[in-house]
Amino acid sequence: MTQSILRRVAIGTALAAVALPVAPCARAQEAAAPDYAAIVAAPDRSDADRQTDQRRQPARMLAFAGVRPGMTILDMEANAGYSTELLARTVGPTGKVYAQDSAAVIERFVKDKFDTRAQKPAMKNVVHVVRDFDDPIPPEAANLDMITFFFAYHDVTYMPVDRAAMNRKMFAALKPGGFLVIADHSAKQGDGTSVGKTLHRIEESTLKQEIEAAGFRQVAEGDFLHHAEDPRDIPVFKAPVPIDEFVLKYQKPQ
């Protein structure tokens, strides 16, 4: 009787030892990066977006950010929704993207552009959020996996926005370990926020100071949009050379 019990225990232990490696493999599969190039190459994306791809390098941006299926993401100043759509395609049907814009930005720049894009099947998991930048987070958007703020932080420097309050609320909305990925057009050293409206640029060090003051910790920096030939003193929309742009990844400490 005792020997029978011992045999069963030995067999059970052996099976458990065999089963142990399966769990890490399953977790690795769940965390595996999607095919970002295939997402960008989707045949139903618009020709206008493909033109924008040439300067924005979206596959590299999505990879740098680490966007994964199932994530819940807030896209700050979504504007016409170029980045929002790419995020929505990447997080897939099990994820969600909140696309934030203020009423003033919609009235002045977006109008019906976002609503037109929102009709696309790829946008089914997107919620359009119309809220001021001082208070951009809807009540239901808690414990976010990621916030993106692409090429628009400079805009809020010349709007009546309490940026410190905005940054604190972004920090609070992320889950511990969540990420803020932010990119913008580079200004010259010493320009700070003074050229936000005229050149549509911001000094990288100034942005870093403001973001880090809210508690964010920088974890990565991308160099794939840097262009040394840009003198950084020309308005972004009139520059004859590619614009120098910085890309930063921050994390909310665990």
Automatic annotation (TrEMBL):
One of its GO terms (biological process) is methylation. It holds the Pfam family Methyltransf_31. Residues 1-28 form the signal peptide. Keywords: Methyltransferase, Signal, Transferase. Transmembrane segments: none annotated. It comes from the Bacteria. Residues 69-189 form the Methyltransferase domain. This is Class I SAM-dependent methyltransferase. It comes from Bradyrhizobium jicamae. The lineage of its organism: Bacteria, Pseudomonadati, Pseudomonadota, Alphaproteobacteria, Hyphomicrobiales.
